[in-house]
Design a protein that fits this description.
single chain, alpha/beta, three-stranded antiparallel sheet, 19% strand, binds 2'-O-acetyl adenosine-5-diphosphoribose
């Protein structure tokens, strides 16, 4: 399943970077966004994942985030997340860039994580921007800051800019990586989607792990079809032992 070239590249690599998307958490039981069972088949992004929608109907948006938080706190990281945590220990310089807001990479033990779309467990005030500690999922009234402003989940919504430092660091990593993995992402939402191609242009060996082909499959070096939770532990065994 793994080419000699990939194993050799990994054995020689100094800097390894990974971009993950919703697919890495699918085997934990967290729904993805696109595809037949995806969240965007049942919910409309424009009603739930943008700032105007939140200001129009904060109760509805909180209900949706609490529904997702409930799923997330009840699930566990899967063997794919744990393999990535082991890879961080194995390589001198390992960077994990994620579009996921589900906190599962933290829970699996990765330390150097770049959260491009925020984290559903964090919150902040829409007025004073203060970070607010975790809010109980079953809280009935709308959460408000001491300044009176509404509290929102600290995630990136459609039309919002990504956290600048996180984004700059992610592009720097893509430009310096020897091997770059794109795992469980449909690679359609910018700017995250351009990271694998940025890495490729900068000379990295770029590998995709996904259950299906994506828009970038033919533009990178290797596309491995299968479940991240099965492929990643096998890959780890192969290059760390083999
Ligand atoms: P998507 O739902 O668009 O894509 C998930 C990808 O994971 C698909 O390509 C699946 O084929 C693949 N997949 C599913 N199960 C898998 C498994 N077990 N192993 C490997 N791959 C698997 O999710 P993202 O690409 O993460 O943004 O979506 C990007 C962004 O769009 C999200 O961060 C979110 C969404 O709208 C915002 O909310 C701003």
């Amino acid at each position: 399943m793994f080419s000699e070239k990939l194993i050799n590249k990994l054995k020689q690599a100094k800097i390894v970077a990974v971009l993950t998307g919703a697919g890495i958490s699918a085997e934990s039981g967290v729904p993805t966004f696109r595809g037949e069972e995806g969240l965007w088949k049942k919910f409309r992004p424009e009603e739930l994942a943008n700032f105007d929608a939140f200001m129009r109907n904060p109760e509805l948006v909180w209900e949706w985030y609490n529904y997702r938080k409930k799923i997330i706190v009840e699930v566990e990281p899967n063997p794919g997340h744990y393999a990535l945590a082991k890879m961080e220990q194995y390589f001198e310089d390992f960077h994990l860039i994620t579009q996921n807001v589900d906190n599962l990479h933290h829970r699996a033990g990765n330390k150097r994580i770049y959260e491009l779309h925020g984290n559903i467990m964090r919150n902040r005030c829409v007025d004073c921007n203060k970070n607010i500690a975790e809010i109980p999922i079953d809280q009935e009234e709308l959460p408000r800051c001491e300044c009176g402003g509404l509290i929102r989940p600290d995630v990136v919504w459609f039309g919002e800019t990504l956290p600048q430092q996180v984004m700059m660091n992610s592009f720097a990593v893509a430009n310096n990586a020897d091997v770059f993995f794109s795992i469980g992402t449909s690679a359609v939402i910018q700017p995250a989607a351009s990271l694998p191609l940025e890495a490729k242009h900068a000379g990295a060996y770029v590998v995709e792990i996904n259950t299906e082909s994506t828009v970038i499959s033919n533009l990178i070096d290797e596309s491995i079809l299968g479940k991240a939770g099965e492929i990643l532990p096998q890959l780890l065994d192969k290059f760390s032992i083999g």
